[in-house]
Amino acid sequence: MQPYLSHLFSRLWFRLMGAFVLIISLVILVTVILTRQGTDTQFAHFMVNGQMIRTSRLVQNLAAFYQRQQSWTELDAQLDQVLLEASDGTMNSMFQGMMGMYNNRMQVVDAEGRLVADTEEDTGSPLSAVQRWPIFVDEAEVGSLVVEGAMMGHTMLDGDILLRGVTRAAIVAGSIAGIVALLMAGLLVRQITRPVAGLVQASRNIADGDLTTRVAIRSNDELGELAKTFNQMASSLERQERVRRALIADVAHELRTPLTGIQGTIEAFQDGVFAPTAENFAIIHKEILLLNRLIEDLRTLANADAGTLPLHFAPVDLAALAQQQVAAFHYQAREQQIDLQVTIDHPLTQISGDEERLGQIFINLLDNALRHTPAEGAIQLSLVNATDGVEIRVRDNGAGIPPAALPHIFERFYRVDPTRNRETGGSGLGLTITRQLVEGHGGWITANSPPPGATKGTEFCLFLPVAPAQGGQSC
Question: Domain 313-465, what architecture?
Answer without folding.
Answer: 2-Layer Sandwich (3.30)
